[in-house]
Amino acid sequence: MTDVISRLQIKFNSTNNGHTPTAHPAAQISKVEIVDGSDVLLSLSGRQIEALMFYEYMKGRHYEIEYRNDCENRSIYDILFGRFLWDPELALDPKKFKNPQLKITHNLASGGSAPDAATLEVFADLFDEKVPSPIGFLLNKEFYAYTAAASAANEYIDMPNDHPIRRILIEGLKADSWWDNIFSEIELDEENKKRLPWSIDGYDLMQLAITKYGMYQEGFVGTMPAVAALNVYVTPAEVVNCAVAGIGSNTNPYINAEKVGGYIELNTSAVVAFRGLLAGPIPHGILPLDCGRLEDMTDWYDVTKKGKVKLRLKAGASASVKVTLQQLRKYA
User: Fold this and answer.
1) How far apart are CA 288 and CA 283, in angstroms?
2) Domain of 246, in residue numbers
3) Percent of the chain, pLDDT > 70?
């Protein structure tokens, strides 16, 4: 394509081959990239895209998660290249690059209920008759990954100073671990703590994000294949408030015990299909450090004018940790 792109939408539909959930459907998309040779213009996982969609749109999943056998689970992953759809100042202009390519790494068996078939489609929202002259685009990519120690160890991450930063996403998701136990402290400092744009503990960051963005809400549907506990994988990482009702039956599955880390545990007195609605914070264990007024690019964190900028993450529990950056990349 040569037209300016405002948004890409990746549609991944998979057909379940069982009633027992194996993982969240977003796990089916391990990486979405746009590359121009060695230049990376986008690099996100399905989980990171869904979390970023929530922080951009301030609402949860478009479709309910489907875990029933022979039923199709539908997922759409939105990637905005501007502050909003049809942003005339920020969009991806393929003509600014030599040979940009979209690469999607996927595995249908990685999420849902053991799917055995899937379809993949990609849609692009292009500027057509009204052709803008964008100054740049939002560069979203995973920047750093490591395994946190179980002790109170600090991980020091040197931040790039090539492009202004709009948002930093801190990701940590582990079954049965509270988010603020994974991250006890988060700190962003300039020039050896001459200035601290961010200095906060994990619990307070969680509270600030909930106050600003509210709860992630989504629906889900499935079947209890037996009279036993069933793990259902959901997007909020913890503090999930959930209502579940039986379909065509007065037998309602119930939450057996409070669980955290991206799943709930249901139990029942009879085999029954069910539908549920839930709300909770921290989609996929990802919280944002917003760097200024998100609609005003002149207010973003301009690290190009700074010296050494370092992110410090203090561990509270061993877990896989990722840091994703949303930056303003200008064309000139």
Assistant:
1) 11
2) 216-280
3) 100
Q: Residue 248: what residue type? A: G
Answer yes or no: is 198 within a domain. Answer: no
Are 275 and 247 contacting, i.e. CB atoms less than 8 angstroms apart? yes
Going from the C-alpha of 129 to that of each of 3, 17, 40, 86, 126, the distances in angstroms are: 10, 45, 29, 13, 10
pLDDT of residue 40: 97
Q: What is the spatial distance between Cα 321 and Cα 84, in angstroms, rounded to a whole number?
A: 28
The Cα–Cα gap between 203 and 179 comes to 8
Whether residue 224 sits in one domain with residue 130:
no
Query: Domain for residue 125, yes or no?
Result: yes
Enter the DSSP assignment of 209: H
Single residue among 99, 134, 169 that ends a domain in this structure: 134
| 216-223 and 65-66 strand pairing | parallel
Tens-digit pLDDT profile for residues 6-61: 999 999 999 999 999 999 999 999 999 999 999 999 999 999 999 999 999 999 88
Tell me the pLDDT tens digit for each residue of 280-290.
999 999 999 99
Per-residue pLDDT at 52: 98
pTM, whole model, 2 decimals?
0.96
DSSP 257-323: E---SSEEEEE-SS--EEEEEEEESSBTTEEEEE-S-TT-GGGSB-GGG-S-EEEEEEESS-EEEEE
How far is residue 254's CA from residue 268's CA, in Å, rounded to a whole number?
A: 6
Are the beta carbons of 139 and 328 closer than 8 angstroms?
Answer: yes
Label the pairing between strands 65-66 and 154-158.
unpaired
Mean per-residue pLDDT of the chain:
95
Q: How many domains does the chain have?
A: 2
152 band by pLDDT with thresholds 50, 70 and 90? confident
